[in-house]
Design a protein that fits this description.
Number of helices: 6
Largest sheet: 4 strands, parallel
Structural class: alpha/beta
Strand order of the largest sheet: 2-1-3-4
Shape: globular
Number of domains: 2
Strand content: 5-15%
Radius of gyration: 18 Å
Oligomer: single chain
Distance between the termini: 44 Å
Helix content: 25-40%
Order of helices and strands: EHEHEHEHEHEEH
Number of strands: 7
């Protein structure tokens, strides 16, 4: 009697920690903005990616069919991401049960280093650009690399793109 090939189903949610491979740098930044913990190092080899994902129990997003095959052989949870542009990649994720959220800055992670963000109370700090101070009320700072964030036009564009993907 043959054993049926049972496909595993899963949902990737904000609780999952991600490892995103080199060609998906923009996707890594967007997932961080949505609040996902994302390990991203564009210089990792395929074998190091598999080792790291397995050791740290990270969910792998890859564009490489070869890396996806290696992940399967090594029992690493993974998704093969399709698409060249961010909209296509997000659609690929949604169709594979990845929860995509409209980002809220207070839940975001630093898009550069993956650090946690904290609201800036003292807005007299010289690191906030003067023009931004004139137009925005709330600012956040990465606790790791000190990058400053606010909900400007870039955030609006990201939210609009995600809304379109989710329709």
């Amino acid at each position: 009697m043959a054993i049926p090939n049972i496909k595993k189903t899963f949902t990737v949610s904000i609780e999952n920690k991600l490892l995103i491979d080199g060609p998906l740098g923009k996707l890594a930044r967007w997932m961080r903005i949505m609040g996902y913990y994302c390990h991203y190092d564009p210089d990792l080899t395929s074998s190091l990616i598999i080792t790291l994902a397995k050791e740290k129990k990270l969910f792998l997003f890859t564009k490489s069919l070869n890396t996806a095959k290696q992940a399967k052989l090594n029992e690493v949870a993974h998704i093969l991401v399709n698409g060249k542009i961010i909209q296509e990649q997000l659609i690929s994720l949604v169709t594979q049960n990845v929860q995509i959220n409209i980002p809220e800055i207070h839940n975001a992670r630093c898009s550069i280093c993956n650090g946690n963000l904290k609201i800036i109370i003292d807005k007299t700090v010289e690191i906030i650009p003067k023009k931004s101070l004139e137009h925005y009320d709330q600012f956040f700072k990465c606790l790791n690399c000190n990058q400053i964030y606010w909900e400007g036009s870039h955030w609006k564009k990201i939210r609009n793109t995600i809304r379109i993907v989710l329709i």
